[in-house]
Amino acid sequence: MSLTVGMRGEAALVVGDEHTAARFGAGGVHVFGTPMMIGLMENAAWQLVQPELAEGETTVGTLVNVRHLAATPVGGHVTATAELIEVAGRRLVFRVSAHDDHQLIGEGIHERARIQLDRFLARLNEQANNTSTADSAEATP
Fold first, then answer.
1. Active-site residue among 19, 20, 59, 68?
2. Which residue from 32, 102, 104 is spatially nearest to 74, judged by alpha carbons?
3. How far from 29 is each of 16, 19, 24, 33, 125, CA to CA, in Å?
4. Is residue 34 flagged as an active site residue?
5. What spatial distance separates the first Cα and last Cα of the chain, rounded to whole Å?
6. Sequence-distant (≥ 6) Cβ neighbours of residue 34 within 8 angstroms
7. Using CA of residue 28, residue 78, residue 66, residue 124, what is the dihedral sign?
């Protein structure tokens, strides 16, 4: 594994109706929605590091702190960039930004944690089983 501070990655899309704030119920405006911008930023970070991880490893998002600075209309092209700025054990910190055809539309910090996928899924499954057992016990008179 060779995660190096300064590595950069990108993810891009053309804004469709499915990417708008109106589609997410976030204001009813037909422009690129903040949840999609954040998702694109996360995707840029994930794609950047995934090839460098050991087999069975992946990353999950743990923190997003971004500002959405400008609106992008349907049909606009958006590119998100992630730059790895810190590696602290399992914690990976990225400077993220997004640009459309005309300007910077978002910027901030995103953190991801390296995980062993099989262990993560096993714990999740155990939690689901514990929840369903507790729900069954509560439902019993």
1. 68
2. 32
3. 13, 11, 10, 8, 38
4. yes
5. 54
6. 21, 26, 68, 106
7. positive
Annotation says 126 is catalytic: no
Is 55 catalytic? The answer is no
Which residues on adjacent β-strands are paired with residue 116?
57
Buried b (16+ CB within 10 A) or exposed e, 37-66: bbbbbbbbbbebbeeeeeeebebeeeeeeb
Which listed residue (30, 34, 58, 79) is catalytic? 34
**pLDDT the model gives residue 140:** 58
Backbone torsions φ then ψ of 58, nearest 5 degrees: -150, -170
| Cα separation, 50 vs 91, whole angstroms | 14
**Tens digits of residue pLDDT in 22-72:** 998 877 899 999 999 999 999 999 999 999 999 999 999 999 999 999 999
CATH fold label, 8-139: Thiol Ester Dehydrase; Chain A (3.10.129)
pLDDT at 28: 82
The span from the CA of 91 to the CA of 58, in Å, is 12
Marked catalytic residue, from 20, 42, 110, 111: 42
Contact in structure between 5 and 85 (CB atoms under 8 Å): yes
pLDDT for 57: 96
